[in-house]
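Usage

Read records sequentially. Each one opens with the input sequence:
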Amino acid sequence: MKYSIGEVAKSLNIPISTLRYYDKEGLFLNMKKDKSGNRIFTENHIETLKVIHCLKMSGLQIKDIKEFMYLASLGDESILKRKEIFLKQKENVLQKINELKEALELIEFKCWYYETASKEKSEEKVKNYPQEKMPKQIRNIYQKIHQI
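and closes with the structure output:
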């Protein structure tokens, strides 16, 4: 099937300007245009966009994505290099997930903290709250964030 830039933008929730930028940067192989000069997207371009989005979300910069797309254009001779890129990005994503989990724990603690302070009408009471009265999950987080 063939799609217009507007159809692709709408279905993937990507601004048209971003799609034009990707094309200008050479991220799409075999991008054809109609008689009016409008880009014609195919299923392969849609799959390419999904890979680009994945790589961007994992922290890869456009110049590095461009390099990945070049490697992809080489075919089988670049399989191992492309695999290495994804393995590295997997590690980056796992690290980000761990960082976000730590941030979420602190947020959960602070939500409990302020909810309890609101009920007690005193932040000072919560600062001196006995750990054994804290819910187990909150106590675990408290101990984790207060260790050096």
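Summary fields computed downstream for this record:
- The first strand starts at residue 2 and ends at 3.
- The chain has seven helices and three strands.
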